[in-house]
Amino acid sequence: MAADPTAVVPDQAHPSGPGHRPHPATGSSGSFVGRDESAFQRATTPDYFGWLEHVRSAAGCSHPIRLSGEVATVDRATGQLLASVSTADLPDGEIYKPCGNRRHAVCPSCARTYQRDAYQLVKAGLAGGKGIPATVAQHPAVFGTFTASSFGPVHTQRSDRAGRPIPCRPRRHADLCPHGVDLRCHQRHTDDDPTLGTPLCLDCYDYDGQAVWNHSAPELWRRTTIAITRHVHARARALGLPWVQQVTDSGRVRLVPPVKVSFGKVAEMQRRGVVHYHAVIRLDGVDPHDPNAVIPPPAALGVDDLVAAVQHAAVVAFTTRPHPVQPAGWHITWGDPGKGLDVQPVNADGDITDGKVAGYLAKYATKSTETTGHVSRRLDSDTIDLYANHQGTHPERLIDACWTLGGHRDWQQLRRWAHMLGFGGHFLTKSRRYSVTFRILRDARVIWRRTETGHEWAEQPVETTLIVGLLSYAGSGWRTTGDALLANTAAAMARERHEAAREEMTAAA
Questions:
Q1: What is the CB neighbour count within 10 angstroms for residue 450?
Q2: Are residues 13 and 160 located together in one domain of the fold?
């Protein structure tokens, strides 16, 4: 569905960028006319369909970026200017560019594009394609979930061995905490239950510990991948596998282990407000002549060796730097043994297939803190009081813990990431050789659009020309609510036609 257009239009009373020009749909005071009236004015202009084509690439975006300036086409070989287009000659005098936000709660359209790219990126690392050899499907690979330890009992969903829901935290007798709160819960929580993920006692919960764990999770993951690699190398040494003489890009020869570990990882925010990681971990061989080649690992190393390496690394831990609140620092580790790690082999014939894993990781790549009930931009001293409260709700107490702990000079990054409940890492990362990059996928999409849409600056072959954009920021958001309504509606109709075509092609096949 298209995003609500009434929420994606900038405040015209305050120009949103340099080069701002009043729009005919606004009154003398700069305020908008009604949505229906501005939509009617746009739809009755002579170049309406030209405008729709002009904004098509950003039509579904909730908050597009508007750019003004000039786009030039230059010959790569000679540097000769082949063509030049000024945005002043285009509808609205600006180019509309999608915001590119990956969060579904912020921009569903851009998040959908990001999700599809994430799917292709993850799947290429498991099944090949997009420049990755198809033989990668035969490499040992596992799918692991790494979760945090407990910071206090929370309302959760539980099921028995048959998969039937059971009460959240049943106890035969009263279980009182130091604050006199009964920690029993006999409810069977549904997915939309607002209490799901909230502590049974807010005052008992370790908010400082959870905020620091979120902040330290990227470092814990880095140490975990190092531990996995070392364990695999030790296993190769134990099997007597010969080390490889590899020629580097600089021409030097070095002796390296015969196997490497590659991974793709997504961070997901749980309902309780703590991140956990879903990761695809793969074994690769080492090419003595090409350090970037992706080849099968030695046959003596299999998926069982990789599972053992991941389980061994799950016990990695470290202690943070001291803080006045915690002079000895916080002990950072994964959850309790048997609870903090779930690792399963990826195979084409079992329950954990490459398509399912790619879809699973891509789905969570577009989510963030909204699952906890909190959504905000980066916070500062002027806005922190709107979201932080040490006696408030669960998310408010987490944000307050981040802001309070971040007051120390060695922990200032906690304030920078308070809006993310302390987590400052990327939500999707990968090792260099695991798969393609988002940039390669975006560039391929740009080339396709330029060669298929017939823009003036794409008439020359892509291989021989260079597109140079001399553009500056002109503003954000749609100019009027009517523009947002028309553009989002056109994008929704195009998506429906696209999905209908895909269903027809699938049925015909």
A1: 18
A2: no
Higher pLDDT, 449 or 486: 486
Secondary structure of 86-109 in the HEC alphabet?
A: EHHHCHHHCEEECCCCCCCCCCHH
Q: What is the pLDDT of residue 291?
A: 82
Residues 260, 382 within the same domain: yes
pLDDT surpasses 50 at 115: yes
175 DSSP 8-state letter: -
486-503: per-residue pLDDT in tens?
A: 888 888 887 788 788 878
Q: Where are the alpha helices (DSSP H) in 26-107?
A: 35-43, 48-54
pLDDT tens-place string over residues 210-231 = 999 999 999 999 999 999 999 9
**Structural domain boundaries enclosing 458:** 5-105+437-508
What is the CB neighbour count within 10 angstroms for residue 150?
17
Return d(Cα 72, Cα 465) in angstroms, integer.
10
Rounded Cα distance, 403 and 415, in Å:
5
Structure tokens at 283: 């074994």
Residue 169 in any domain: the answer is yes
Task: Tell me the C-alpha distance between 97 and 476, whole Å.
Answer: 9
- Model confidence pLDDT, tens digit, residues 277-297: 999 999 999 988 888 889 999
Band of residue 58 on the pLDDT scale cut at 50, 70, 90: confident
Judge if 162 and 242 occupy the same domain. no
Q: Do residue 292 and residue 352 come from a single domain?
A: yes
Q: Are residues 238 and 285 in the same domain?
A: yes
Q: Considering the domain boundaries, does residue 114 fall inside one? A: no
pLDDT of amino acid 491: 82
Dist CA 244 CA 298 (whole Å): 11
Q: How far apart are CA 49 and CA 481, in angstroms?
A: 18
Summarize the confidence of residues 447-467 as an average pLDDT. Answer: 57
Check whether residue 306 and residue 239 sit in a common domain.
yes
- Which residues are CB-neighbours of 45 under 8 A, at least 6 positions away? 51
Side-chain-facing half-sphere of 38: CA atoms under 13 Å: 23
The helix-helix angle for 303-313 and 207-238 (nearest 10°) equals 140
- Do 279 and 382 belong to one domain? yes
pLDDT per residue over 390-437, tens digit each?
999 999 999 999 999 999 999 999 999 999 999 998 889 999 999 999
Q: Is residue 57 part of a domain?
A: yes
Asked if residue 170 has pLDDT above 60, the reply is yes
> Model-level pTM?
0.81
**124: in domain:** no
Task: Name the domain boundary from 407, 430, 453.
Answer: 430
Tell me the percentage of the chain whose pLDDT exceeds 70. 89
Q: Are residues 70 and 83 in the same domain?
A: yes
- DSSP letter string, 253-314: EEEE-SEEEEEEEEEEE-TTS-EEEEEEEEEEE--SS-TT---PPPTT--HHHHHHHHHHHT
| Final residue before a domain boundary, out of 405, 430, 455 | 430
Q: Tell me how many domains the chain contains.
A: 3
